[in-house]
C-alpha cells in the first residue's frame, strides 16, 4: 500500500513523481523498557562518495541532496542532544529541531539528517543557514532551520546500524508524522529514474542527488554505500586580471572573473583551480600583454594585476554565495573568438548573485 506524503521540498510538488512509503510497523510500547543494545553516545556518520553519474537499478534509492549541516539527533528518556558531524553538541543552537524531536514521543532513538534553511522555492540555501547561525564561527541560535531526517540508527533499545537501509527507512517513515511540515521532516525517497531526477534537480537549482544502496548496513565513513551526484553549472566569464603568486605554478595564483550586467562589469570572484603550470604560464603572459592601470571592476587586494576585458574563460561552479561570488569554481579553458561565447549576464543569476 502506498500512502501519499508531502514531498521533501515545495519545489518537488509539481513533479509527476510517486513518493514511496511502506505500511507502518507498529511499535510495542513495552519494548523501550527491555535492555537490548546500549545506546551509543555517538555514531560516526556514513558519508556519501562523490560520483559523476547516477547509479541505476532497483538496488538504489534516491533522495534530494540537501545543502546544510549534518546532524545526529539523540532522543533520550530525559533529554535531547543534537550533535554535529564532528561530534560537537549544538542542541542549544537548534531549539526548534530539538522541540520537534521531543514531540515525537519516543523513549530512545538516534536520527540522522541534515539541518537546512529553505528559500522561497523550497531549496536548501547554505548561505541562509550560515546567516541564521551568525556566519562562520558565529554563536547565534537558528530559529529558521529545519531537519530533514533520512536515517534511523537506534530505536527503543535496538541498534539498527547492522540492519539494511530499507528496514531503517521503513521504521523511520513510521516515526515522522504524516505530511509533517514543521521543524522535523522526512527526506522522501523519490521514485524517479536516477538520471531524470538529476536532470530535474539541476534544472530547478538543487544541489544534486543522493543515491543509497537499499541492502547495506549503516557503515561509518565514505565507503560507497551512499553516493552523491552534484549539479555542476558551467558558464562563460570575462577574465579581468589575476593574482600573482610566488609559490604556485607559473606565478599565477588565481584569475579574476567578471560577468555582465547591462553595460557594466560585475565582479564574481576568482578561480585558482583547473589549470596546470603550462596553462598558467600562458595565461599570465597573455594577461601581461593586456595589462591596464584602470581595472574594469573594483577589486581590492595585494599582488593584483588588472587586464583589459578580452579573454573569456569557461568556468564550472557549484552555485553562488550570498555575496554574489561563484561557489567552488574551476577553470575549464578559454573560449575561442570564433565560438562567439556570450559572457554570463548577471540578470540570469540567482538573487544572491545580483
UniProtKB/TrEMBL annotation:
One of its GO terms (molecular function) is ATP binding. InterPro entries: ATP-dep_DNA_ligase (IPR050191), DNA_ligase_ATP-dep_C (IPR012309), DNA_ligase_ATP-dep_cent (IPR012310), LigD_ligase_dom (IPR014146), NA-bd_OB-fold (IPR012340). CDD domains: Adenylation_DNA_ligase_LigD_LigC, OBF_DNA_ligase_LigD. GO terms for biological process: DNA recombination; DNA repair. Pfam families: DNA_ligase_A_C (PF04679), DNA_ligase_A_M (PF01068). Its EC number is 6.5.1.1. It is an enzyme of class 6 (ligase). It comes from the Bacteria. Residues 17-38 are annotated as: Disordered. Keywords: Ligase. Residues 138-230 form the ATP-dependent DNA ligase family profile domain. Belongs to the ATP-dependent DNA ligase family. PANTHER family: DNA LIGASE 1 (PTHR45674:SF4), DNA LIGASE 1/3 FAMILY MEMBER (PTHR45674). This is DNA ligase (ATP). It comes from Rhizobium paranaense.
